[in-house]
Write a structure and sequence with these properties.
By secondary structure, the protein is mostly helical. 65% of the residues lie in helices and 0% in strands.
């Protein structure tokens, strides 16, 4: 009896399982997901949200008063730039960006609260007569909403 030699089509020299693994490796190498640094579009959205929070009725304005739009604009840009620089300094090569993004969000919250407190103590009168404290976590939630909305 004559032996029949099986020939494999080109590109299938690997067993099927190994062929699938190679395809997955190629796919994984081309797709990367990085959460830090945020895009300029995301940073602009954060600034826009900060301006809105500082100049319109919000949790902060109830306690510390609101700012005029031009002052809120300048303050928001400063807050975001400083927070971005501080968070960027904490980034590491092994980090997937989540921890750095958390630092960024916390820095924004901290700096925003400091800005409204210093403005309030310098002569502006707050609109809040109840004296309800403002939770920094509420501010972080507002910023986190911006991050997820603009992604």
């Amino acid at each position: 009896m004559a032996e029949i030699e099986e020939t494999k089509p080109e590109g299938e020299s690997l067993p099927p399982q190994q062929h699938e693994i190679k395809k997955q490796e190629k796919t994984m190498n081309t797709v990367t997901f990085s959460i830090w640094p945020p895009s300029q579009r995301t940073r602009d959205a954060v600034i826009k949200r900060l301006i809105e929070t500082l100049s319109t009725p919000s949790v902060l304005s109830k306690r510390y008063g609101s700012m005029p739009a031009d002052e809120a604009n300048a303050t928001a840009r400063t807050i975001e730039e400083e927070a971005f620089a501080a968070a960027g300094g904490s980034a590491s090569a092994e980090d997937d960006g989540i921890e750095t993004l958390q630092v960024y969000s916390k820095e924004i919250s901290k700096r925003m609260l400091e800005a409204v407190k210093s403005r309030s103590s310098s002569g502006s009168t707050p609109d809040n007569s109840s004296g309800t404290p403002v939770a920094a976590s509420t501010i972080s939630e507002e910023i986190s909403t911006v991050n997820t909305e603009s992604s």
